[in-house]
Prior knowledge:
The structure holds 2 protein chains of 2 kinds.
Chain A: H1 3-15, H2 17-41, H3 46-57, H4 60-71, H5 74-91, H6 93-122, E1 133-139, H7 150-159, E2 163-171, E3 174-177, E4 183-185, E5 187-190, H8 194-198, E6 204-205, E7 220-223, H9 225-232, E8 242-245, E9 248-255, E10 278-281, E11 297-302, H10 308-325, H11 327-330, E12 334-339, H12 340-380, H13 382-390, H14 395-431, H15 446-473, H16 476-480, H17 491-527, E13 537-543, H18 552-567, E14 572-578, E15 594-595, E16 609-613, H19 617-621, E17 625-628, E18 642-646, H20 647-653, E19 663-665, E20 676-682, E21 697-701, E22 709-716, H21 724-734, E23 740-745, H22 746-753, H23 755-789, H24 791-799, H25 804-833, H26 849-875, H27 879-885
Parallel strand pairs in A: 5-10, 7-9, 16-21, 18-20
Antiparallel strand pairs in A: 1-11, 1-12, 2-5, 2-11, 3-4, 3-8, 6-9, 7-10, 8-9, 13-22, 13-23, 14-22, 15-19, 17-20, 18-21, 19-20
Helix pairs in contact in A: 1-2, 2-3, 5-14, 6-12, 6-14, 6-15, 7-10, 12-15, 12-17, 12-23, 14-15, 17-23, 17-25, 17-26, 18-21, 23-26, 24-27, 25-26
Chain B: H1 12-22, E1 25-26, H2 27-37, H3 46-59, E2 62-68, E3 74-80, H4 82-111
Antiparallel strand pairs in B: 1-3, 2-3
Helix pairs in contact in B: 1-4
Amino acid sequence: MNPIGRFQKKLSILFGRKQFRSDLDEEMAFHREQAEQELIAGGMAPQAARYAAMRRFGNTMRIQERTLETVGFRFEGWIGDLRYAARQLWANPGFTAVMLLTLALSIGANSAIFSVIDGVLLKTLPYSRSDRLVRLFLSDSSYPKFPLNPFDFRDYRARNQSFESMAVFTRGDVQLSGSGEPVKLNGFGITSGYFHVLGLQPELGREFDQKAEIPGNGLQVILSDRLWRTQFGSDPAIIGRRVTLNMQPFTVIGVMPKGTEHPGNEYHAVSYGESVDVWWPFSFAGDPNRRGSHFVEGIARLKDNVSVEQARAEMNAIMTQLGREHPNYDAGWTVLVTPLYTEIVGKSRQMLLVLLGAVGIVLLIACANAANLLLARASARQRELAVRLAMGAPRSRLMRQLLTESLLISLMGGAMGLALAFGGVRALVTLLPADFPRARDIHVSGSVFAFTFLVSVITGILFGMAPALQAARLDPRQGLQKAGRTTTASGHQSRLRNALVISEVSLACVLLIGAGLMLRSFLNQLQLDPGFQREHVLTASISLPHEQYKTNATTGHFYDQLVNDLSALPGVESAGAGSDLPWTGWDENAGGFNIEGKKPAPNQEFHARYHMATPGYFKALGVPLLSGRFFDEGDTDASLPVILINRAMAERYWPGENVVGRRMTFEDTPKEKDWMTIVGVVGDIKDQPNSPGAEPAFWWPELLAANSDMSVVMRSSANPELLADALRNEVRRLNPALAVADVQVMDRIVETSVSTPRFAFVLVGMFAGLAILLAAIGTYGVIAYSVSQRTAEFGLRMALGAQQGEVLRLVLVQAIKLTLVGAALGVAASLALARVLKTLIFNVSPADPTTYAVVSLVVICVALVACYIPAYRATQADPMNALRAE
Amino acid sequence: MAKKSDLLPGTLDMLILKTLARAPLHGYGIALSIKRLSDDVLTVEEGSLYPALQRLLLQGWVKAEWKMTETNRRARFYTLTAAGRKQLGVELSQFEQMIAAIGRVLRDAQEA
């Protein structure tokens, strides 16, 4: 018969299952009766004949089952197993709840972390063939990652053979006005071909051509999809339209499509993502032979057959040529060529992998825990299993049954975990550090589903293995023995259970130590002296359009006026403005000045960061004056040039000297008016709270070297946020066309700066908490089980005169032994593993003795608490009961 | 239960088909017939018989229907189908080939 006919028959039997069974029953009953009658006819007594016939016929159930297997589908066996497993779980709600809860939490945590890893590390970047994209930087011993000089870039572009295309970009925000309130937009200046490098096409219009790179041709702009929609009502005729940026008319030549992601930048960084509003053409202004200023960032697309290494070698050869051509500027640099992927996710990678390791450990502990619980229950079920064996169930069938049960549990746990992961991922994303790359790419995707399913199955098999193997060894006779004590765990079994507890404790120890190190690191960062006073400070940024503020004098005068007006406001203690704020990014800049009476080491320049500040800036921020004086109203371009320097600069270039009154200059052949005199030294502020040390830096008075983009700082005697409206009013009073952007309190900036260590600590801490809870449950389970097995023994001991305290000690010693071994293994494993944390922790040794000691103590205490309840129960063993049971 | 079927593996289906070729029979009748015809040498275990009958039904080699016995009891009688008769032929010829082959080997071994 053909397979289809067979299938139809099977199907009809499946749906007529009841009929099939009753037919078979009747048929077999008939068979037995016939045999019986035959025996009676042979002269046997009816009763005896009946039993003989039944014996001869054999196990009816078994025959039924085998017959059904012949006609049934394979999956029917599984469904039967599944139904049985579900009944088992339903019958033990407490056990099931503990198993499901622990599995759901640990699988959910794994799914959530995997969602982040999937979105951040595994998904390819949204550029075509993004593996070919690289970022370019310069590097030397004091500046490992330095931006490029535009004219150098033009030479790279002309001379290289490695790249299909190259471009540079630099942050330059612009102010959009014309309708309603002026808005500050995130803007980037880009060379022609920038989008071509990224593999992106404008949705409307085109991108900049090389003509736009010529100074004076630059009044063109490309809009982001978001800006086009929100500010220009998705105008389909936008191309060619004039928009007012920085008070100048720009012609829109293109609109980028939705999903145009900024590849991230290093200096005055805007995070990766759809964070850019407008792009304007970068133009090569100035003298191509003066190459001291470095402020553009390079990006390039490798040719198909060129590796990163080859490109790096070629770029360095070009740089060496340029070094010969422009020895004053280009000698001594090497070129860094870094894959874009590494540049974007490199810093987060280590942390994410550590987090994945941490949740992996949690899952392992949950596995050990589940295995332990199943083992304990398997001992209780020994009789059930023995009966099934004795009835003729094959061992493979029992193992399949037990594995089905554990898989059912783990898959249900996985489903619940996935539900938790949906919430968990949302919480994770809000908790992410501010500068975390690709945060918007994180969600529970198809691959997260697949991952969760896979993890659930593996988990189920892992923890189902122990009881299944045990069932395979079960001796039905032993299991059926009814009299006497309940069967005690075999030596093998208790060794397995002890090993599971020890591994749970040691893994929990590893996580707790990791969490402890991160906590210390986090606290260290919180307690650092930032170099300024963070409380009661409001900040905002303002940029003056060049069209209206063409000269240093007008720019300087504007900020002078604004700061004076702000200082006069009630509730304002001091106010100032500076070219930047602490911990919000920085420029690597200003090399090549000369210091009176000093010579730089060969092939080294004097380097320092430069900033501008109004007189009140330092006081408003709370930066201390170490010697000399701050700026005052007299420090203008009319007076002799003065500067302030920080302590790091004083110590680097004038070690042990009195610095006030020393002079430096940017001119090679300075006249008297070119010398800048140091009037004071201020305290250090590091680039980032966890930077190893502060970089040398100096400040010009804003009235001398006016900067049009400034950050306003106001110190308030009360809640600084209340000053925001007053600030806006003052700015509007001076010039209603100006946008006030980035209004925030300094506290918030400080919090953002520690968001990475906080994120790492909170997560690892949560996982560690879960781990120690699971380990406590595991320890409790094993000790409770062993106490229940030894009740008779304890009763006997007490009948023979043992005190409660002795019995208590007996149990606790067993627990302490397990815990100590676990903790010792955990400490050893942590010492070996903690190196991976090195880049994630700050000012803490990965082998920090305090952390290790405290964690070991905590683990032992938790284990003792977990064991106390069963130990106490042991002391309540009634000697009479125990003896009677014997 | 310790005693396993004494039948050569794979021969049960053939024996059942052959038995039914003579006349329709119920399960007990098939077992009895095989036992008697083999002078009690071959016993068909019930544990193998009923699964085998279902297997033959699925293949379409036998048909089953409930009928009355001579003693007026309801019993399920199995009848050979045309396909079953064909299958019996195939199995018989395969079996004879095998017996002949085994015989040759044994004879050869004796002569050597």
